[in-house]
Please model this.
Amino acid sequence: MAALLEVVGFIWPPRCWLCGAGTEGLGGWDPWCSEHRLAGRCGGATCVRCAAELPPGLAPGSTCAGCRRRLPAFTRVVAPFAYRDPAARAAILAFKHGGRRDLGAPLARAMASGLPEGPGPFDLLVPVPSHPSRRLARGHDPPALLAAELELAGLGQRASVLRRVRATPPQGSSGAPARRGNVRGAFRSVARLGGGAVWLVDDVIASGATADACARTLREAGAGRVEVLALARA
Model:
């Protein structure tokens, strides 16, 4: 098998998924060039609940001030990459806004390979829904594409049980209370859930307000544990 892969690599040299540059010496079937190779989250302590970076002096496993003020409906956020990393940001922006839906497969594989151990297993993979107008403008639905690829990776069964019933402005740079108001009542569940564990799938977590609103809707529909799986944490 190794010899066959070597021959295939000679005939079709691997190229970076993002820019098309050669990746000689880097290997892999979904390679990135040196400039765009995805790195894990940057060092530093993060909130055990929402994965936000903690102020200096707080130990890993602490809860941030925002989560202490208002406990989210999700149990935790898992985001293998940091959005401030230039390579991760370039790939995500191309995927979300640049029409590069082909990046869904390698990005989902990178998500899956970057997952920490437990808890699990998960019954459902539920993508954060986009409003139909947003899907039309982009030409695709990034969280839904990620959820489909994560299902192929064996992380759970994809179930599009959430609907966005109200178009909302982009979250932008507004503070957490404003963001919560922005998405209040924007989601509903189209199915009753039987208490299983749910991965809520998204691309980037910023304030966590959208994830919290979706998780509350899922819990009201009967979901048990809801955890958030995203590409990156802003």
DSSP finds eight helices and eight strands in the chain. Residues 95 and 101 are 6 Å apart (CA to CA). Helices lie at 2-11, 65-69, 86-97, 104-113, 132-138, 142-152, 176-183, 209-220. The chain has a mean pLDDT of 83.
